[in-house]
Amino acid sequence: MELSESVMKGLQTLAEPNVFDLKSFTIFMDVAFDSLDSSRGESVLGHPELRHIDQTTLKHCHTAATTFILEGVKQNADKSTISSCLEDVRFQNERVDTFYNSFQKHKKSLESLLSSTDTCPPHITDAEWRLEYCIKNSHVHKVNQPSYLISLNTERAGASSEINFSCTMDQLQDLVGKMKDAAKSLERAAQS
């Protein structure tokens, strides 16, 4: 696994017995996994057994540990991969075993969490429009301008929704031009 320098330093700090004794390390790992696994997970900063550790160090180590955990789940890392990475940052065998046991315990729920994370925007499945002509505004001034009421039906992960907006003729022409440019860019990308 490729990890950033900051994550490596956080894991190295977590491996130091003079910063985290075995009891503190075990508690820290339980809290770190629970914070990912549960929306109401306990914070490492508020845990009474970890108050003797500097708060900045706790934050850094927590960020490093959770990053490593999520990266391991994302890559479906096995015991040898995890052990190798942790030994590279000077984890003792007992700490590697503690980490891996917690990793195995929470792996399925974290895989589910990662699979439910969706970064894809909704897909437009249909579009409807209606021309509206405004003769006067609320101040009784003559306007005499057309506007378009657009309704886009979208779908994301099986759920449908609707996006409604109003635009002028110039705005609509600009939107159509940008959509044509985007379609051409996609065609060029697909041909490369």
Automatic annotation (TrEMBL):
Record-level GO BP terms: sodium ion transport
UniProt name for this protein: COMM domain-containing protein 3
Family: Belongs to the COMM domain-containing protein 3 family.
Domain COMM: 123-190
Signal sequence annotation: none
Pfam families tied to this protein: COMM_domain, COMM_HN
